[in-house]
Write a structure and sequence with these properties.
The chain is an all-alpha fold and 177 residues long. It has helices at residues 2-17, 48-66, 70-91, 102-119, 122-135, 151-167. 60% of the residues lie in helices and 0% in strands.
C-alpha cells in the first residue's frame, strides 16, 4: 500500500510538472470516449491537497483489505474503480471532470464493512465494526452537500465495495457424511 500511495504522489508531481495535463484523464460524464479514463481517473488528483486527503484512509483501509492477499486486493480495487467510475460517467453533472482515489477509499470502506457478514467470519465482522467506528463519518460524503466534491464517485465507490464483497467472498465447501 505504501507503493500504491507513493505512486499517487509521484503521478501528482508529474502532473504539476506537466502543467496539469494529466487532469484530462479524469472522467467527463456521458462522453463515450471518456470511458477509457475510468481506470486512470482513480490515480489522478487535482493538487497535492487532494492526494493528501486520500492518502491515509487509502493506506489504512487498503492495508487491511490486502491482508487477504494481493490478488484479492487487486480484484477488489479493480471492481470498485470500475463500478465507481462508471457511476460517475453515468450520473455526474455535465461538463465536470472527476478524478481521485476517494471512490476507492469509499469502496474499501464498504468492502471491509460487509465482508465479514458475507463470508460469515467473526474476525472479519469485528474488523468491519472497527472500520465502521473509525471511518463511519465518511458516509456523509455520499450526500450532495459540498460543491466540487464528487458524491457520485463516493456513492458508486461504496456500491462497488459491497459488490466486491459478494463477488470475492470466500466460498466454503460443506462436508456431508
Amino acid at each position: 500500500m505504501l507503493g500504491w500511495v507513493g505512486l499517487l504522489w509521484v503521478i501528482e508531481a508529474v502532473d504539476v510538472i506537466a502543467g496539469h495535463r494529466l487532469d484530462s484523464l479524469g472522467i467527463v460524464p456521458r462522453k463515450p470516449a471518456e470511458l477509457i479514463d475510468v481506470i486512470p481517473s482513480a490515480f489522478i488528483h487535482f493538487g497535492f491537497g487532494h492526494v493528501a486527503s486520500n492518502s491515509l484512509p487509502l493506506l489504512v483501509l487498503g492495508f487491511i483489505a490486502a491482508l487477504r492477499g494481493i490478488g484479492r486486493y487487486l480484484a477488489v480495487a479493480f471492481t470498485v474503480i470500475v463500478i465507481g467510475g462508471l457511476g460517475v460517467w453515468l450520473i455526474a453533472p455535465a461538463h465536470t471532470n472527476t478524478a481521485g482515489a476517494s471512490g476507492l477509499v469509499f469502496g474499501l470502506f464498504s468492502y471491509l464493512l460487509v465482508r465479514g457478514f458475507v463470508d460469515r467470519r467473526a474476525l472479519d465482522i469485528v474488523v468491519g465494526v472497527v472500520v465502521g467506528a473509525v471511518y463511519g463519518s465518511i458516509l456523509w460524503g455520499v450526500l450532495p452537500t459540498a460543491s466540487g466534491v464528487s458524491w457520485q464517485g463516493h456513492l458508486f465507490g461504496l456500491i462497488g465495495g459491497v459488490v466486491a464483497a459478494f463477488l470475492f467472498r470466500e466460498r466454503t465447501v460443506a462436508v456431508t457424511a
